[in-house]
Amino acid sequence: MIRTADRQRAAALLQGFLDAGATLVETEILQPAGTLLDLYGEDIRARAFTTHDPLTGEAMLRPDFTVPVVQAHMNNGADVARYCYAGEVFRRQEVDEGRPREYLQVGFEVFDGTDPAAADAEVFDLIATALAPWSTHPVTGDLGILTAAVDGLTTSEPRRAALRRHIWRPSRFRRLMDRFTGKAAVPATRTALLAQVAETSVEALIDAAGPAVGLRSADEIAARVRALTEDAALPPVSHTEAEVIGMLLALDCPMAQAISPLRDMAVDLPSLIPAIDRLEARAAALARRGHTPDTLPFAPARGRTAMEYYDGFTFTFTAPGRLDLAPLATGGRYDALTSVLGRGRGVPAVGGVIRPGLLGDLA
C-alpha cells in the first residue's frame, strides 16, 4: 500500500520539476504489451504484471514511465521538450524480499539534442538538488563507452550485434566474449553439428531429422546453421581488443580521472574517441553546475543491470549505509529508444526518476 506521506512527498518533488520548466504528462496505467515485448523480448514478462484485454489484446500494468512518455513525445512530433510525471509503477518480485510490487515514481525527462552534455548535467543536477535533504550518494556510468568499444571490435557484425544485445546481461556478455576470443571451448553439440554440415548439406540434415518440432521453419533453421558455420570460420577477437574490453569493465574511479586511461585505451580501440569526448564534455558541464568530477564516482559499465534502454550516461543515487534499500533515484541517456519508438526519427533524450517511498523510509 502506498502511504499518504509518500504521495505528499511525490507531489512536492513533482512541483520542483514543474518549477524547473517541465510540462506535466500523464500516461495510462494499463500499457499495450506489444511495444514492451518488441523492445525487451520475453524477458519483460518476468518483471511485469500482464493481463489480456478482449479488445486491445495483451496488456501490462505500467512497469515504468519512460517508454510511454517517449511514445507520446514522438507521436506529437515535438523536438525539444521537458516533461515531468508522478504515479504508480508495478513490478513483479520473484522472491519475497520485502520489496513492493507497487510503488511511486516521480520523473523528469529532457528531449533536446542541442547540447547533450548540458542536458545530462541538467537532469543529474535537478535530481541531486531534489535529493539534497537526504544526503544521498551519487555514482555515474556511461554505457555509450562500452557500446563504442564493441562497435570497434575487429570481428563480424553478427558478433558485434550479439555483444551489443547482451551489454545489459553481464554474465551472458562475458560468456560471449570468452567464446569470441577462443577462451571458452565450443560446445560439443555444436562441434558435432558443424562436422555433419561439412559432410552434407543443411537441407539434407533437416530432412533426415524427421517432422519439425517447435516454431522455427526449415528455412530459419538452415539460416541459423549457416550463421554458425560462418562464425566458426572467423578468427578470434584479438587479445589486445579483448583486453581493452576487460579494462573498461574493471575501470572504477572518479569521473575526471577516467579520461586519461580511456584515452590510452583508445590507442588500441579508436572507436572509443567520440564517446570519451562526450564524457569529457559532460564532466565540464557538471562542473559548471557545481558538481565535482574529480570526486564523482564513475565506472563505464555502471548501469548495465538497470533498464535496457540506457545507452549512454547513467547515474544512481543511494542512501549511505542502507544496503537494504534499492536505489533512491536512477537515470540516464536513451537516444536509441527514441529512434525505435519514433520509427527511425530519433531525438536525443535523457531522464531520471526518484522513488518517494524509499525517501520516506529514511525519514
From TrEMBL:
This protein's UniProt keywords: Glycosyltransferase, Transferase
Keyword Cytoplasm tagged: no
Family annotation (PANTHER family): HISTIDINE--TRNA LIGASE, HISTIDYL-TRNA SYNTHETASE
Gene3D superfamilies in the record: Bira Bifunctional Protein, Domain 2 (3.30.930.10)
Binding site for L-histidine: 64-66, 91, 105, 109, 302, 309-310
Identification of the protein by name: ATP phosphoribosyltransferase regulatory subunit
GO cellular component: cytoplasm
GO molecular function: glycosyltransferase activity
One Pfam family per UniProt: tRNA-synt_His
Positions of the Class II Histidinyl-tRNA synthetase (HisRS)-like catalytic core domain: 10-229, 238-351
